[in-house]
Structures are given as structure tokens and as C-alpha cells.
């Protein structure tokens, strides 16, 4: 059962080939067996999962099941889950039991999914390798010496290793797409505002967006359909109809115009990765798509602008962790200032501390115009580049990441080098566009991802374009040998 | 832009983070490197470019000024480090 996609599992549940309880037990057994090697889960909620599975089976017997009823998934530990520890990968929330469910969790529960547990992640989603987690790094199932990417590294590794058929993730600068690429799975970051941020612990609020991670675009379509939609509790949620992504998957690609940004194929892109990506693009031409070279001239400014905007917003968002109302509190504070400063210093790791400091500096008196305002102006230029590109093409394609998964420890002491692994994903967040990564091959035994970028609210198009490729190739069916 | 340990200490105070003296030089190095990266923004003239705060350029939605949340004080205080009689306890602020 564990090698089936959500689409296949959904069919198996519907025909009664197996029950949700049997399915859930099978995945819990795999987590028991394989998680020690991967560290993909921070918390496994076995008892609650079995209770949810039995409830899903009962619901099916009453004839009230939907396509996701009884399907096991995992949640990135950034989504609040009522009564279950929600750590965000941080010591400061190590003992935080969320008092409510995030909207995404609530919506997926309403669809009848079974939560297997909470997946490991970079602390507060700040990282590209899952090495900043308080709970230790996650390993890449394709090669245990390699990182899984980040920040949704636990979700990506768990899906790739068949410990769960699907998982939630969040993406502020590439945190769904980059780990999806490095672990050889499919993940989509929707348009900003498409999926509610309520109950999703905030990192950089003008960039954060939740989305699904699974083996195929069809599975992502099923999950996104259940996750997306207007939420009055999120003030930036967009009130717009959620299309039926499944019925839109099979549209032919004849005449589709794919833009290839010349800036995404230049210096910094590893040669073998470029070769794999070019093969995937050739496959699209065979499917009837037309490719056009385009330019996104301000691409090189995305990382500099991001490392002002994201830290500035994080320094403000993370001010709430003060040791007073929830989270870690230091021992024997001598006064209120000591309580704040020591609780926070003990609770946050080095990368989170760095970003809070950068953001605090950028927002401090006298520096606002030079940093935050300037970055917001650059953000406009980057967004305008995409608007012009979408006048010419339907989707944009390129590599998700300039390299395949790097080794554990390789970049952990050098923040700047680490930041560059998100060079092709960050601009998409700044513009607020949807982006998808799908597996298109390997360099050695490490997977390569193709990124597809769409116009605002074109998630249906991205899923369709990825799905058509997955109908004629089998990269998405490959399983890492040790976890097959 | 280059920051030294003294500037890091000042920023850490603004951020309410107790950075140890021996950690300050490493943070100063990291922060200076990040600010050098960020300085690449200055290569572009942005005179007259409207800053973009929201990807969809939407206005903030407002809601009716009405009570919509139930009282969940006990539930929320159950996860607090220290409470007493429905209040959050912190060290004495005023003598």
C-alpha cells in the first residue's frame, strides 16, 4: 500500500480494498521502521491517527466519504494542531501544545484526512537544508549523507521515503519547492492569499504561503482543493472561487507557451542539473508546447531584497515570543528585561537570531529608507518583470535549485552560500505568484526538480502542465532503494 | 556595511536578545556579510518606483467592530509558563 499515490489510495478506500485503519497502521509501521534513519517527524500521533482512521471508516460506511476521507497525511510542524505539540522546529516552542487548529488543518480534517504526525523543519522555516531545526537535521532518503532541502525538509523526506503519501508545507522563499526538488517529489506554492495563513506560525507575513507536497501533481491537486479558499480570519486571504483542480488536469499542452528565463540558465547553475532540465523541456516540446526565451532582468536582486524584507518581517513577528504567555521561559529571571532577553536567547537558534538581528537593524531609526523601503521598491521591479513575461507566455520553466542536494554540514556555517540555493525560487514569493516543482531526473542518485511558475491564481494551469509530463514520464514513480 | 561587536550588542538589545559577549564577533561577521549581500540593491536606481508591500496590491480588509471570540482564558493560560488567579506572572516591574 505504501507505494501508492493518494489518488490510488483514495480509489482503494472507495472500493473497500483496504480500510483507513489498515492503511494508517501500515504507514505508522513504516514511520516506526524508517524514521530513526531520517528524522523526518518531530511528533508521531499514532493514537489520534487511529481514532481519526476509525472515524473515517465509519463516515465511509454512512456514505459520506469524499476523495480524501481516510487518507493519511502529515503536517509540517508550523501548522497549529489542537492538543498536539506545535514546535516550529524551535526550542522556544518545544513544549507548546497548540490550543486550536490552523485553518489548513481544520479544512483537511473536514475532508476526513488522518494526521500521522508533525514533520521536522528548519527552525521557524528559516533555512534551506533542515539543519537549523532544534530537533536535529533530516536526512535525504535518496542519499543519507545529503540534506533534504528546507525548510519543509521533513515533509519532503517523509513523502519521498513513503512514510506518508502526502504532507503540508509552507513556502516563504522556496521552502516547498526546493525540498520537493531535492527529494524528488512534487510540491506547489500557491498564489499569495490562496491558502489561509491562520494558525500557520508566521515568519515573513507578506511572503508566507502554505501548500501541498506529494508524489504527483494529481495528488497535489486533490490536497490543494481541500486546503485552498477564503478565510475571514486571515486578513490577506483572497475571496475567490477554488476551481476543481482535478477536472482541469488533463487539458492538452498543444500550443502552450513556455518561457525560459535566460537568467535562470546562466552562471551558478550546475552543468549536469542544466542538462536534466533541458531534457525535461525537450519533453514538453514533444507534448506540443512551444518554448520562448524570455528575460527577468532584475532576477539577481531577489535574494538581496528578500534578505531585507523577510528578516524585517520576522523580527516583528517573532517579538511575540517573550516568555510570558507561552513558550520557553528562562530560570529565575531577575527582572522583566532579563526574562525577555534570556528566554529569547535560550529559545532561538543561531539562524533565527541572525535574521532577527538583521531585521531589527534594517528597521531601526535612520535605516528604514535605505533598507526596507528600497527592498520594497526592488520587489515592485521584480514583480513587473513577471507581469511583462506573462504578456508573452503561459508559464515559465527553469531549474528549481541550481544544484542537487548538498551534503549535510557542507553549507551550515556559511549563511550566504546557503541563501544562494534559493536563487530561482525567492523571486516568486516576492511577486506572490504560484510556483511548482516536479521531479525530472537525477544527477548521480540525487534528484533534480523543474520549477514551473504561473500567473496569479493559475495553480490549475501549473498542476495541468506538471500532470501531463507525469503521464508520459516515470520520474515521479521512482522510489529511493532503501525505502522502496 | 560592516558592523562590529558593539553595534551587534546594541541591535541585540533592541531585539531583546541576550547575546553572550563571546558570540558577538561571529554575529558581527555574519551580519556584515548579509548586509554586503543586501547592498547589491544599491546598484539599481529606484527613484520614483512605488514600494510594494503586498503582492496583490490589495487593501487591508476590515471587519465589523464586534466581539467574535469566546472567552478562552483558561485554555490559553494552561500553556503559560506561570499564571496565578487568571493573571500572567512576571517579575516585579514597579516597586
Largest interface: A-B, 69 and 52 residues
Helix content of chain B: 25-40%
User: What would you give as the CATH superfamily of the domain at 6-256 and 471-483 in chain A?
Assistant: Amidase signature (AS) domain
Number of strands of chain A: 11
Under CATH, the topology of the domain at 6-256 and 471-483 in chain A can be stated as: Amidase signature (AS) enzymes
Globally, the shape of chain B reads: flat
Provide the structure class of chain A. Answer: alpha/beta
Query: How does the helix and strand content of chain B classify structurally?
Result: mainly alpha
Low-confidence stretches of chain B: none
Average pLDDT rating of chain A:
97
Instruction: Output the CATH class name of the domain at 6-256 and 471-483 in chain A.
Output: Alpha Beta
Distance between the termini of chain B: 43 Å
Which parts of chain A are unreliable, with pLDDT below 50 for 5 consecutive residues or more?
Answer: none
**Major β-sheet strand ordering of chain B:** 1-2
The helix-strand sequence of chain B is HHHEE
- Largest beta-sheet details of chain A: 8 strands, mixed
What is the terminal-to-terminal distance of chain A? 11 Å
Strand content of chain A: 5-15%
Amino acid at each position: 500500500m505504501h507505494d501508492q499515490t493518494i489518488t490510488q489510495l483514495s480509489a482503494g478506500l472507495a472500493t473497500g480494498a483496504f480500510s483507513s485503519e489498515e492503511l494508517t497502521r501500515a504507514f505508522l509501521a513504516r514511520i516506526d521502521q524508517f524514521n530513526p534513519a531520517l528524522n523526518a517527524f518531530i511528533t508521531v500521533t499514532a493514537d489520534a491517527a487511529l481514532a481519526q482512521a476509525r472515524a473515517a471508516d465509519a463516515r465511509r460506511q454512512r456514505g459520506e466519504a469524499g476523495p480524501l476521507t481516510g487518507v493519511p497525511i502529515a503536517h509540517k510542524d508550523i501548522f497549529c494542531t489542537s492538543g498536539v505539540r506545535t514546535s516550529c522546529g524551535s526550542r522556544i516552542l518545544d513544549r507548546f501544545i497548540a490550543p486550536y487548529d490552523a485553518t489548513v488543518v481544520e479544512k483537511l480534517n473536514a475532508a476526513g484526512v488522518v494526521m500521522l504526525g508533525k514533520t521536522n523543519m528548519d527552525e521557524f522555516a528559516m533555512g534551506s537544508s533542515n539543519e537549523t531545526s532544534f530537533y536535529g537535521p533530516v536526512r535525504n532518503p535518496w542519499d543519507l549523507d545529503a540534506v533534504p532541502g528546507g525548510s519543509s525538509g521533513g515533509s519532503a523526506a517523509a513523502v519521498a521515503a513513503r512514510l506518508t503519501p502526502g504532507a503540508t508545507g509552507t513556502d516563504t522563499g522556496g521552502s516547498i519547492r526546493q525540498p520537493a526538488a531535492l527529494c524528488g517529489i512534487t510540491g506547489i506554492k500557491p498564489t499569495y492569499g490562496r491558502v489561509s495563513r491562520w494558525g500557520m506560525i508566521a515568519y515573513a507575513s507578506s511572503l508566507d504561503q502554505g501548500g501541498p507536497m506529494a508524489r504527483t501533481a494529481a495528488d497535489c491537486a486533490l490536497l490543494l482543493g481541500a486546503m485552498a479558499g477564503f478565510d475571514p480570519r486571515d486578513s490577506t486571504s483572497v475571496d475567490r472561487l477554488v476551481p476543481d483542480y482535478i477536472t482541469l488536469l488533463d487539458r492538452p499542452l498543444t500550443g502552450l507557451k513556455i518561457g525560459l528565463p535566460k537568467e535562470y540558465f546562466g552562471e551558478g547553475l550546475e552543468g549536469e542539473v542544466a542538462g536534466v532540465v533541458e531534457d525535461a523541456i525537450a519533453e514538453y516540446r514533444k507534448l506540443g508546447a512551444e518554448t520562448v526565451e524570455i528575460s527577468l532582468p532584475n532576477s539577481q536582486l531577489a535574494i538581496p531584497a528578500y534578505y531585507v524584507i523577510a528578516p524585517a518581517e520576522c523580527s516583528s513577528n517573532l517579538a511575540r515570543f517573550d516568555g510570558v504567555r507561552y513558550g520557553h521561559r528562562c530560570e529565575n529571571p531577575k527582572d522583566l528585561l532579563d526574562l525577555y532577553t534570556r528566554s529569547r536567547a535560550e529559545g532561538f537558534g543561531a539562524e533565527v537570531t541572525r535574521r532577527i538581528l538583521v531585521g531589527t537593524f534594517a528597521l531601526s531609526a535612520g535605516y528604514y529608507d535605505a533598507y526596507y523601503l528600497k527592498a520594497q521598491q526592488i520587489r515592485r521591479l521584480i514583480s513587473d518583470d513577471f507581469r511583462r513575461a506573462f504578456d508573452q507566455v503561459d508559464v515559465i520553466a527553469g531549474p528549481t535549485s541550481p544544484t542537487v542536494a548538498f551534503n549535510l554540514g557542507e553549507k551550515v556555517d556559511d549563511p550566504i552560500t546557503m541563501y544562494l540555493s534559493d536563487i530561482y525560487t525567492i523571486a516568486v514569493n516576492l511577486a506572490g505568484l504560484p510556483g511548482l516543482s516536479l521531479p525530472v531526473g537525477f544527477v548521480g542518485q540525487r534528484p533534480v526538480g523543474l520549477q514551473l511558475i504561473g500567473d496569479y491564481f493559475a495553480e490549475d494551469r501549473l498542476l495541468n502542465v506538471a500532470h501531463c509530463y507525469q503521464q508520459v514520464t516515470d520520474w515521479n514513480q521512482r522510489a529511493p532503494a532503501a525505502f522502496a | 556595511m560592516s558592523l562590529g561587536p558593539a553595534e551587534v550588542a546594541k541591535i541585540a538589545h533592541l531585539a531583546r536578545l541576550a547575546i553572550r559577549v563571546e558570540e558577538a564577533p561571529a554575529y558581527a561577521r555574519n551580519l556584515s556579510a548579509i548586509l554586503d549581500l543586501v547592498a547589491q540593491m544599491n546598484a539599481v536606481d529606484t527613484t520614483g518606483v512605488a514600494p510594494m508591500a503586498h503582492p496583490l496590491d490589495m487593501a487591508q480588509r476590515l471587519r465589523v467592530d464586534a466581539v467574535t471570540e469566546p472567552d478562552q482564558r483558561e485554555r490559553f493560560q494552561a500553556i503559560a509558563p506561570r499564571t496565578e488567579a487568571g493573571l500572567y506572572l512576571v517579575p516585579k516591574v514597579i516597586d
